[in-house]
C-alpha cells in the first residue's frame, strides 16, 4: 500500500516536473482499453486537492499527467471495463446534453458524490479521441482543367514578366519556382497578388517573428525550410516527441503550408511570404488526439511562437456542427492573454473548403472563435472559388487555388508542389503577411491586428459579395470579409497604429423565447426578437465600442439544415448567422451553439438588436423551436484601468445584474428599456402570419432586470422545453470558489519548488526500481523515426454514417497494417509520382524561355488531380467530435 502510494506520487511528481518544462513526456495512450478525461482542480495554493483526488480514486482513476501548459488541469484515465466508467462523463464542462455527462445512477450515488464533491474540483471534461481534418485542396473541375490548359499556353515572354525579373534582381532571388509563385507577383492577372515586394524592398521579411504551423508535421530537413526552422516552438503531439517529422506517407500538408510562410531564399523551390522569419511545426493531424493534447498544441511554445497558423478544423461536409472543448477554449484564451508578452498570440484559421456543400464557417467553432482570424480565399483571377466557405466570422481573404491554378510552394522530401490549394493555402499566406506586420509594429495586440485587418484590407469584387458599409466606414462581405490582404497596405497602416484600450465585454441575459414555427411550401416564417441595450448597460460593464459579437443559441429543429438565423444591429448591419445547409439533416438542432460576427466592428452597441430565426422555403415538415439566446458584445473598454482578465467560465450577465442592482438600488424596470411594437418590414423575408403585438419581458429575471427586455413578434408559440433561467447559455459553469482567479504561472513555480525536494528523492528511488523508461523510449523513437513510416489508414469506407458527430473508429485505426520498408517506399512513390514534381529534374519556368517538354508532367498531374483529391479527401477520416 505504502509502496503503491510512493509509486504514484513519484509518477505524479516526475510527470508534473516534466510537463512544467514543457518537455511533454506524455505516457503513451491506450484508447482501446481506457477512457481519458481532464480534471480541473484548484492547485493554486497547494497540491493537496489533487493528491486527495488521486488517493480517493485509487484503483479506479489513474493519474496520467498535467495538461501541458495549463495550470490546474490534469489528465486521468479510467479502464473501460471498470464499472464506474458507466456513470463517468463530463461534469461542469459546458457540454451539452448528448455528450457524455457524469450521471447519478442507481447504485452509483456514492461514487458520484465522491467524484463531484472532491475538494477544489471545478470540472471534469470527458475526452474522446478525435481527428481534426486538414483543409485539403479541392479537386479541379473539368472546366477548370481547361482553364488551366490555357494558363499553360500563355506565353510568358512579355512585359508582364518585368516585375518578376526586377524582384529577382533586386533581392537576389534564385529560387527556381519563384516566377511561378503568382501569389507574390501575378504576371497573368496583374494586381491579383499580395503586393508584398514593396515591403521586401524595405527590408521587411518577417525577421524576429515566429509562426507555428499546427498541422501534420514540417519537413525541417528540407533544404528549403531548414535554415528558418525553429526547434523550440515545435512539438509532435501524435508521436509525443520533440520534432514534428512528417512520418505518414500523406503528411505533406503542413510542409506545404510552412513553405508558403517561411521557405528560404536560396536555390530551392520558391520563397515564403516572410522568408526572413522563422517557422515552427506542431504536429497533431496525423492520428487521433484528445482535447488536452489539442489544448497543449494550441499554446505550445508560448514564449517562442507569435502566430499559430491552422489549416484544419471540423469536417467540411455541410452537415457537421463542431466546436473546441472547454479545455481547448481555455488554452486559446490563455494564449491570447499571455502569449507575445501579454500582447496575445495570433491565431489564423482557414475558413473551410465546404463551399460546394453549402457549408458555412459559422458552423465551425474554431473559425467562429473571436480569438482567431478567419481567412477565406480568392483565386489567381481574383474570383471567389466555389469551395471557399463564407460566414460572418470571415475577416479577410487572400489568394489560393481556383480557376485551374494552384499555390506553388515547397513540398516534403525536397520537392516542390504546384498543387497546394483550398483555404488551407490561404491561411498560411495570411500568417506570413501578419509576420511582416508584426515585424513592422511589434506592439500590436491580437485585437490591434484584427483592427488593422479591418481597416486596411482591400474590398474585392464589390458587385458580388453583398458588401455592407460598416460603422468603421469599411465595406464588409460574408464572402470576402473586409477584403483581400494587401501586404504593403496593411504593413504601412499597422506601422502607425496606436494600440486600442484593453478588452471589455457585455453579456445580455439569457433570453428565453420558447416559440415554434413550422416550415411550409411558400412562406418564410419568422420568429423575431428585439434586445434593447441602453448606454448605461454598456457603461456599467466599461464597454465603449463593439469589436466581436457572439450569439449563443438553443434551437431545436427537426432539420437543422433548414434553420435560418440572422442578427441586425442598431446600426443596421446584418449578420447572417445560420445559413441553410441542404445536406444537414440532423435533428440535433443547436445546443448552446455560439455564432460569431466581425461585421459589427466599431459600432456603439447601443440600441435595438434584432434576432430572427426563420424557416426555409420550401420547408414542409421542418419544425423549429427557438428556445433561447444570449448576445455578447466584446470590444474596447472605456477605462483601461478598470479592465479585468477574461474568464470563460464566469457568468458575466449575473455579475452585470449585481452591479446594476447595486447601482440602481430599489428602482424597478425602466419602461424605456422595453421596446414597443416592432414593425418587421423586412424586404427579403416576408412575415407569415399576423404579428402578436404583445410585449413580453424577458421571463428570466424575477428581480430587477433592466436590460434584456425583449419584444415578441413571433407567429406562434409553444412551451416545450425551456432552458433554465439566468444561467449562462454556454453552460460555462462557475465554481463556488474559483471566481475571478487568474492563474499565473507564479504559483506553479512555488508548487514545483515545494515538490521538487520530495520529488527528487522519490524519483531517484523510483528510477532505481524501474528500468529507465526514457532511454528505451528514446531508442525506439529513433528507430521509428528512421524506418517506421506508417502507411495511411484505410479509409475506403470511412464516410460517416450520417451521424454528424462521429468519433473515431478506433478499431480500424488500430488495425492499420505496418508495412515493410519496401512496401512503404512503393506506397510513397505511387502516391507521390503524380503530385510531387522534383525540382532537380523538372524543367523550371524560365523567364524569357519557352515552355518546354518538362512542363508536361506537372500539367498531367494537375489534370489528374481529381482522382488524387477524391482519394485523399476520403482519406481524411473523421471530423472532430
Ligand atoms: C502595393 O505596393 C505598392 C508599393 O510597392 C504601393 O505603392 C501600393 O499602394 C500598394 N497597393 C495598395 C493597394 O496599397
Ligand atoms: C512600441 O512601444 C514602445 C513602448 O511602449 C514605444 O517606445 C515604441 O515606439 C512602440 N513602437 C511602435 C512601432 O509603435
Automatic annotation (TrEMBL):
Residues 1-18 form the signal peptide. Residues 707-730 have a biased composition (Low complexity). Its main location: membrane. Residues 656-676, 690-744, 790-881 are annotated as: Disordered. It is found in: Membrane. GO terms for cellular component: Golgi membrane; trans-Golgi network. The keyword Transferase does not apply. Residues 500-639 form the P/Homo B domain. Belongs to the peptidase S8 family. Furin subfamily. Keywords: Calcium, Glycoprotein, Hydrolase, Membrane, Protease, Serine protease, Signal, Transmembrane, Transmembrane helix, Zymogen. Residues 794-808, 866-881 have a biased composition (Acidic residues). This is Kexin. Pfam families: P_proprotein (PF01483), Peptidase_S8 (PF00082). PANTHER family: NEUROENDOCRINE CONVERTASE 1, PROPROTEIN CONVERTASE SUBTILISIN/KEXIN-RELATED. GO terms for biological process: peptide pheromone maturation; protein processing. It comes from the Eukaryota. It comes from [Candida] railenensis. PROSITE patterns: P_HOMO_B, SUBTILASE, SUBTILASE_ASP, SUBTILASE_HIS, SUBTILASE_SER. The active site is at residues 215, 253, 424. The chain crosses the membrane at residues 751-770. Residues 656-675, 818-829, 854-865 have a biased composition (Basic and acidic residues). One of its GO terms (molecular function) is serine-type endopeptidase activity.
Amino acid at each position: 500500500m505504502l509502496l503503491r502510494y510512493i509509486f504514484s506520487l513519484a509518477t505524479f511528481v516526475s510527470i508534473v516536473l516534466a510537463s512544467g518544462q514543457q518537455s511533454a513526456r506524455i505516457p503513451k495512450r491506450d484508447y482501446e482499453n481506457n477512457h481519458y478525461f481532464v480534471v480541473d482542480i484548484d492547485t493554486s495554493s497547494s497540491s493537496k486537492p489533487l493528491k486527495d483526488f488521486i488517493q480517493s480514486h485509487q484503483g479506479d482513476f489513474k493519474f496520467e499527467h498535467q495538461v501541458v501548459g495549463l495550470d490546474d488541469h490534469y489528465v486521468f484515465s479510467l479502464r473501460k471495463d471498470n464499472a464506474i466508467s458507466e456513470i463517468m462523463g463530463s461534469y461542469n464542462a459546458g457540454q451539452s446534453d448528448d455528450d457524455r455527462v457524469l450521471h447519478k445512477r442507481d447504485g452509483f450515488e456514492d461514487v458520484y458524490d465522491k467524484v463531484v464533491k472532491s475538494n477544489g474540483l471545478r470540472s471534469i471534461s470527458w475526452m474522446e479521441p478525435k481527428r481534426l481534418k486538414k483543409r485539403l485542396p479541392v479537386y479541379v473541375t473539368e472546366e477548370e482543367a481547361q482553364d488551366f490548359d490555357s494558363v499553360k499556353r500563355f506565353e510568358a515572354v512579355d512585359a508582364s514578366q518585368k516585375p518578376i525579373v526586377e524582384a529577382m534582381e533586386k533581392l537576389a532571388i534564385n529560387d527556381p519556382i519563384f516566377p511561378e509563385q503568382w501569389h507574390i507577383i501575378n504576371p497573368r492577372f496583374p494586381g491579383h497578388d499580395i503586393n508584398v515586394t514593396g515591403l521586401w524592398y524595405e527590408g521587411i521579411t518577417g525577421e524576429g517573428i515566429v509562426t507555428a504551423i499546427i498541422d501534420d508535421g514540417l519537413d525541417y530537413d528540407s533544404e528549403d525550410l531548414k535554415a528558418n526552422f525553429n526547434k523550440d516552438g515545435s512539438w509532435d503531439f501524435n508521436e509525443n516527441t520533440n520534432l514534428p517529422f512528417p512520418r505518414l506517407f500523406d503528411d505533406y500538408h503542413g510542409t506545404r503550408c510552412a513553405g508558403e510562410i517561411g521557405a528560404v531564399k536560396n536555390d530551392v523551390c520558391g520563397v515564403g511570404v516572410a522568408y526572413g522569419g522563422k517557422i515552427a511545426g506542431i504536429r497533431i493531424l496525423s492520428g487521433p488526439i484528445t482535447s488536452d493534447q489539442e489544448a497543449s498544441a494550441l499554446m505550445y511554445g508560448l514564449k517562442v511562437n507569435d502566430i499559430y497558423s491552422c489549416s484544419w478544423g471540423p469536417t467540411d461536409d455541410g452537415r457537421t456542427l463542431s466546436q473546441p472543448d472547454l479545455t481547448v477554449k481555455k488554452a486559446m484564451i490563455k494564449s491570447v492573454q499571455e502569449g507575445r508578452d501579454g500582447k496575445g498570440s495570433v491565431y489564423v484559421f482557414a475558413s473551410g473548403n465546404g463551399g460546394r456543400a453549402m457549408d458555412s464557417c459559422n458552423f465551425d467553432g474554431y473559425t467562429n472563435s473571436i480569438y482567431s482570424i478567419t481567412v477565406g480565399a480568392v483565386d489567381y483571377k481574383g474570383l471567389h472559388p466555389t469551395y471557399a466557405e463564407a460566414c460572418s466570422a470571415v475577416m479577410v481573404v487572400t489568394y489560393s487555388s481556383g480557376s485551374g491554378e494552384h499555390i506553388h510552394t515547397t513540398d516534403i522530401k525536397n520537392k516542390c508542389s504546384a498543387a497546394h490549394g483550398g483555404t488551407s493555402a490561404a491561411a498560411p499566406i495570411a500568417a506570413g503577411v501578419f509576420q511582416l506586420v508584426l515585424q513592422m509594429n511589434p506592439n500590436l495586440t491580437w485585437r490591434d491586428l484584427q483592427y488593422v485587418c479591418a481597416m486596411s484590407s482591400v474590398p474585392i469584387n464589390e458587385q458580388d459579395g453583398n458588401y455592407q458599409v460598416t460603422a468603421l466606414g469599411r465595406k464588409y462581405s460574408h464572402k470576402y470579409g473586409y477584403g483581400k490582404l494587401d501586404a504593403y497596405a496593411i504593413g504601412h497602416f499597422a506601422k502607425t497604429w496606436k494600440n486600442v484600450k484593453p478588452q471589455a465585454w457585455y453579456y445580455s441575459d439569457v433570453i428565453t423565447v420558447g416559440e415554434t414555427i413550422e416550415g411550409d411550401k411558400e412562406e418564410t416564417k419568422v420568429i423575431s426578437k428585439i434586445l434593447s441595450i441602453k448606454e448605461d448597460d454598456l457603461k456599467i460593464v466599461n464597454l465603449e465600442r463593439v469589436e466581436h459579437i457572439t450569439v449563443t443559441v438553443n434551437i431545436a429543429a427537426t432539420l437543422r439544415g433548414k434553420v435560418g438565423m440572422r442578427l441586425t444591429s442598431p446600426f443596421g448591419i446584418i449578420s447572417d448567422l445560420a445559413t441553410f445547409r441542404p445536406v444537414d439533416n440532423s435533428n440535433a438542432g443547436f445546443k448552446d451553439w455560439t455564432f460569431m460576427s466581425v461585421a459589427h466592428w466599431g459600432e456603439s452597441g447601443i440600441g435595438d438588436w434584432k434576432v430572427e430565426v426563420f424557416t426555409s422555403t420550401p420547408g414542409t415538415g421542418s419544425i423549429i423551436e427557438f428556445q433561447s439566446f444570449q448576445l455578447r458584445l466584446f470590444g474596447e473598454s472605456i477605462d483601461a484601468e478598470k479592465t479585468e482578465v477574461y474568464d470563460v467560465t464566469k457568468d458575466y450577465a449575473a455579475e452585470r445584474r449585481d452591479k446594476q442592482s447595486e447601482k440602481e438600488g430599489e428602482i424597478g424596470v425602466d419602461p424605456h428599456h422595453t421596446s414597443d411594437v416592432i414593425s418587421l418590414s423586412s424586404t427579403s423575408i416576408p412575415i407569415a402570419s399576423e404579428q402578436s403585438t404583445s410585449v413580453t419581458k424577458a421571463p428570466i429575471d424575477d428581480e430587477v432586470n433592466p436590460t434584456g427586455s425583449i419584444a415578441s413578434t413571433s407567429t406562434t408559440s409553444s412551451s416545450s422545453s425551456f432552458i433554465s433561467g439566468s444561467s449562462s447559455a454556454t453552460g460555462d459553469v462557475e465554481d463556488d470558489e474559483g471566481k475571478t482567479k487568474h492563474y499565473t504561472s507564479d504559483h506553479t513555480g512555488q508548487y514545483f519548488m515545494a515538490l521538487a525536494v520530495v520529488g527528487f528523492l522519490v524519483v531517484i528511488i523510483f528510477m532505481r526500481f524501474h528500468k529507465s523508461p526514457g532511454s528505451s523510449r528514446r531508442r525506439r523513437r529513433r528507430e521509428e523515426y528512421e524506418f517506421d513510416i506508417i502507411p495511411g489508414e484505410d479509409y475506403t469506407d470511412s464516410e460517416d454514417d450520417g451521424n454528424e458527430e462521429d468519433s473515431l473508429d478506433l478499431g480500424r485505426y488500430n488495425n492499420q497494417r505496418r508495412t515493410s520498408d519496401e512496401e512503404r517506399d512503393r506506397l510513397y512513390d505511387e502516391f507521390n509520382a503524380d503530385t510531387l514534381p522534383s525540382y532537380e529534374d523538372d524543367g523550371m519556368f524560365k523567364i524569357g524561355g519557352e515552355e518546354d517538354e518538362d512542363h508536361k508532367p506537372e500539367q498531367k498531374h494537375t489534370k489528374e488531380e481529381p482522382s488524387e483529391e477524391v482519394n485523399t479527401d476520403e482519406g481524411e477520416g473523421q471530423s472532430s467530435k
